[in-house]
Amino acid sequence: MMTPPVKSGPRYNHMITSDKVRVIDEEGENLGVMYTREAIEQAAEVGLDLVEVSPNADPPVCKFLDVGKFRYEAQKKANLARKTQKTQEIKEIKMRPNIDDHDYDTKMRSVHKFIGEGDKVKITLRFRGRELSHQQIGMDLLRRVQEDVAEIAKIESYPRMEGRQMLMVISPK
Predict the structure, then answer these.
(1) Within a domain: residue 6?
(2) How far is CA 163 from CA 31, 125, 132, in A?
(3) In which band, very low, low, confident or very high, does the pLDDT at 55 lie, cut at 50, 70 and 90?
(4) Which of 88, 157, 163 is nearest to 123 (CA)?
(5) What are phi and psi of 95, to 5 degrees?
(6) Is the pTM above the cut of 0.90?
(7) Does residue 133 share a domain with residue 73?
(8) Is 34:18 a contact under the CB 8 Å cutoff?
(9) Whole-number Å distance between alpha carbons of 8 and 160
(10) Is residue 143 part of a domain?
């Protein structure tokens, strides 16, 4: 036995299950509480459907609307919301503990650009060979990064060691 497909979107006309509903006509006038059958008939006289706009209210609020047009507008609104939302990415900047000033400035320009775009930045400091025994140099470098971005960003996760690398995550204020 097959079950009918689940209807998505608002309930309308005979799908409305409650006995009484609060009705709003096509001009936005409140017609008050009436029986669902009566409201469906009134909507049909005007050539529209009775659409449930607020199902959780007591009694549910219904409006005289064209269902197809209502669904189309809702879908357009959802698409627009999806298009305008910004997802926050994590960008990674890799450095070495003995980085030169010019290279450091170049990396910091990238950090400023990423923070300006609203992204988080993960700064990875990779230690090789004997550098691992001089972790204080790495901490000093990450402290310098912290001071350079203090006015535009906040520290999300403070410097910590993970194997041979030291990590720090900063995010826009």
Answers:
(1) no
(2) 70, 11, 10
(3) confident
(4) 157
(5) -135, 170
(6) no
(7) no
(8) no
(9) 48
(10) yes
Residues near 22 by Cβ (< 8 Å), separated by ≥ 6? 30, 32, 33, 57, 59, 60, 61, 62
Residue 4 lies in a domain: no
DSSP secondary structure string for all residues of the chain = -PPPPPPPS--BGGG---SEEEEE-TTS-EEEEEEHHHHHHHHHHHT-EEEEEETTSSSPEEEEE-HHHHHHHHHHHHHHHHHH--PPPEEEEEE-TT--HHHHHHHHHHHHHHHHTT-EEEEEEE--GGGGG-HHHHHHHHHHHHHHTTTTEEEEEEEEEETTEEEEEEEE-
Residues 10-51: tens digit of each pLDDT: 788 888 888 889 999 888 888 889 998 999 988 888 889 898
67 lies in some domain: yes
142: left (phi over 0), alpha (psi -120 to 50) or beta: alpha
User: Do 63 and 122 share a domain, yes or no?
Assistant: no
Q: Which residue shows structure tokens 């305008």? A: 84
Q: Which residues are paired to 122 by β-bridges? A: 92, 169
- Of the pLDDT bands very low, low, confident and very high (cuts 50, 70, 90), residue 1 is low
Looking at the chain, how many residues does it have?
Answer: 173
Based on the domain organization, do 153 and 95 belong to the same domain? yes
Instruction: Give the range of the structural domain holding residue 149, as residue numbers without chain letter.
Output: 90-172
